[in-house]
Amino acid sequence: MGNYRSKLRNLEIPEVTCNALKHKHPTDRKPAKNIKKAKKAEVNYLPPYPVNETEESLEQQRKELLTETKKKNNARAVNEKMAQTFPYRRHEVVNLCPSVKEFMERWPGLFETSQINEEFCRLTTEPLETKFMSMLDQYTPKLLGLFQSKGGAVGERLKANMSILLKSDDLVWDDIPQQVMGIYMIRKDPSNDDSLEDVGIVLEGVKVMSGLGDLARACSALLGLTYSLNLSYPKELRYTFEAFQKLFVEVEGTKLSGKLHTLRNKLLK
Fold first, then answer.
1. What string of DSSP letters covers 174-187?
2. Higher pLDDT, 263 or 90
């Protein structure tokens, strides 16, 4: 295996060379420190640049993409440019680790539902929203039964976990700068759950998406963003995101934690 990785390094395969000591930050130059690798079953975690493309040529394409995203009815051209610049975008995300705000300024076209779905497919070869919605429809009756049956301390923990992910109307504008990751919902009538005016996503204190329509689509998009931006799942919500990934979109669906095994067995009864 060591010889195999040496051959990959000699071929300058990015997934191997990104962990070479000379490519690390001076404070991280230890073999086992800050290892960059696929952690959520990404198939194309850090692909090489296309043949005959360089960092300079791909940067020029990125600038052209900024113009294309401003045109109306231009989804096809945008999608082609996004596909062409995918390796360059992954280089930025994985090796340079920009803030969400910086990345959004450079790649505004990514923060659309259609492109989140495309980027997820580029990374995993699996569909995102269609699969998520299909499995959600399949599991919803059992999930509702499980939630309703949980009382006491377990029920309170479930409510607490959901409150971490979801932000109510009263918290949105004042608390956005403090939110690391979350979904916000604005209602015309706070007492009416069916009066949603806006649903969106906040990352690192920045509102990155809005107008998502409903909570299910927001959860799907948030999962896609964690892949697209190479973000770790929040510790307090790791099982929620594991369910999104492994049960709802079935990426690495055979490797479940004990809690997810138990949940899946109950859902399949």
1. HHGGG-SEEEEEEE
2. 90
CA dist., res. 188 & res. 199, Å (int): 12
> Which tens digits make up the pLDDT trace of 192-222?
766 788 999 999 989 999 999 999 999 999 9
- The DSSP result for 61-126, as a single string, is HHHHHHHHTTSTT-HHHHHHHHHHTHHHHHHIIIII---HHHHHHH-GGGSSHHHHHHHHHHHHSS
Whether the CB-CB separation of 187 and 197 falls below 8 Å is answered with yes
Residue type at 12? E
Distance, in Å, from the CA atom of 103 to the CA atom of 92, rounded to the nearest integer, reads 9
Q: What is the DSSP string of 180-211?
A: SEEEEEEESSTT-TT-EEEEEEEETTEEEE--
CA pair distance 142, 152, nearest whole angstrom: 20
At residue 171, the pLDDT reads 47
Q: At what angle do helices 215-228 and 113-124 cross, to 10 degrees?
A: 50
pLDDT tens per residue across span 7-66 = 555 555 666 666 665 555 566 666 656 677 888 999 999 999 998 999 999 999 999 999
Encoding tokens for residue 259? 């809690």
Q: How far is CA 108 from the centre of its chain?
A: 15
The pLDDT of residue 170 is 46
